[in-house]
Amino acid sequence: MKKKISWWVIVTGAIVGLSAVLLTHFGNPANMGFCIACFLRDIAGSLGLHSAGKVQYIRPEIIGLVLGAFVMSVCTKEFRAKSGSAPALRFVLGAFVMIGALAFLGCPLRMVLRLAGGDANALVGLVGFGAGIFAGTLFLKRGFSLKRSYDSVPLEGVVLPVSMTVILLLFLTVPVIFKLSEAGPGSKHAPVWLALALSMVIGALAQRSRLCMAGGIRDAVMFGDFKLLSGFVAIFLVALIGNLVTKQFHWGFQLQPIAHSSHVWNFLGMTLVGWGSVLLGGCPLRQLILAGSGNGDSTVTVFGMLAGAAAAHNFGLAGTADSTNAAGEFVRGGLPNTGKIAVVSGIVVCLAVSVLNLPKFVKKQEAK
After folding, report:
1. Which helix (H) or strand (E) is 323 found in, with range?
2. 295-to-32, 52, 81, 124, 178 alpha-carbon distances in Å
3. Bridge-partner residues for 151, per DSSP?
4. In which residue ranges of the chain is pLDDT below 70?
5. Contact 89, 100 (CB under 8 A)
6. How far apart are the first and last CA of the chain?
7. What are the sequence ranges of the domains in the chain?
8. What pLDDT score was predicted for residue 353?
9. What is the pTM of this model?
């Protein structure tokens, strides 16, 4: 049985890597065939939650992931409406995970795709991501928990699938009601039906395989189990081969596509993402898949990530990419001071949530 599950993960990873290369070839930004954080940010902008004109688009990839997971969970009778596990904390943690990802300029999935495209900054992000997961596992080993969720009414479980379906239908029929970028990353996208079809397949496979980057490293650290991690190795290898074949591989730190070479904040941004993901029980990709499978707590987390994306661009918290000035000189990107404060604050919040949800503190609170 374990061998079968491992193959599910590897096949899913290979298809994600291939799809990322195809989506980039057909219009998505470079090294961004898939990015949960970036695409949720674009959706938030298109819905008017922030006014950053260069990152506004209804990304079919996000919609497809949720709907694919929903269909697969229903077909396999794994759809289960449940909720009630610290929803307010999950909303806050989801927002900070998004802020950390936008400080790095990518989620864990894009981190792997950036590395496969030759972006050496992703190595720094990977080390930070691993450090955050390691910190989270220390508390898991000591009994950290946001408490269990409980069975709920079916309507609770379809909130995100229905919401995404409505957004898709409106986007296809009356796109004028949305804000859509005319320049920048938001203006670069693959054809809607290609993006939707590929992402629905991936959503279905990810639901079946339980693909999760944070979960993969967590399981490797805690149990020596590399099954989930093997999926991201497959993503990297397939995307690397695709980039080499299409001559899209460019190794280096500076001037990588939609990336910055401020190493401290690449590290700390992904530390926040890794730690927050462990506390939440899954990376941003996994949260979308769980929400599509009926998990109301993950739906709240996704709403938190949308709020985090809005805050990042409304209050100037997001990272800026490396660039060149009018004279052709290199200008290093990075984080504004407000973004640095937000990332450090997020790490402090993760520490507080980790400590205060250990059994000994929970028992003291219950005794009162």
Report:
1. strand 323-324
2. 27, 31, 6, 32, 28
3. 82
4. 1-5, 364-368
5. no
6. 46
7. 2-367
8. 97
9. 0.95
Tens of pLDDT, residues 237-261: 999 999 999 999 999 999 999 999 9
Angle at which helices 263-280 and 121-141 cross, to 10°:
30
Q: Which has the closest alpha carbon to 354: 153, 102, 93? A: 93
Tokens of 47: 């819905």
Residues 149-202: pLDDT tens digits?
999 999 999 999 999 999 999 999 999 999 999 999 999 999 999 999 999 999
Check if the beta carbon of residue 85 is closer than 8 Å to that of residue 282.
no
User: What's the rounded Cα separation, in Å, for the pair 208 and 146?
Assistant: 24
Phi, psi of 194 (to 5 degrees): -65, -50
* Amino acid in the structure at residue 162: V
Contact between 265 and 103 under an 8 Å Cβ cutoff? The reply is yes
Residue in the block written with tokens 């404060």: 341
Question: How do 330-331 and 82-83 pair as beta strands?
Answer: unpaired
Which of 245, 243, 215, 241 has the alpha carbon at shortest distance from 230? 215
Percent of the chain past pLDDT 90, that is, above it, reads 90
Do 107 and 37 contact (CB within 8 A), yes or no?
Answer: yes
Retrieve residue 236's tokens.
Answer: 């990297």
Q: How far apart are CA 313 and CA 322, in angstroms?
A: 18
The amino acid occupying position 204 is A
Give just the sign of the alpha carbon dihedral 94, 95, 98, 100.
Answer: negative
DSSP one-letter code for 207: H
Cβ(117)–Cβ(35) below 8 Å: no
Q: Which two tokens stand for residue 162?
A: 């229905």
Q: How big is the chain by its Cα radius of gyration, in Å?
A: 19
Within 12-94, strands assigned E span: 82-83
pLDDT of amino acid 233: 94
Burial zone of 109 (CB within 10 Å; 0-12 exposed, 13-18 middle, 19+ buried): buried
The dihedral through the CA atoms of 156, 313, 331, 100 has a sign that is negative
323, β-bridge pairs: 331
CB 278 within 8 A of CB 140: yes
- Within 8 A by CB and 6+ apart from 139, the residues are 279, 354, 355, 357, 358
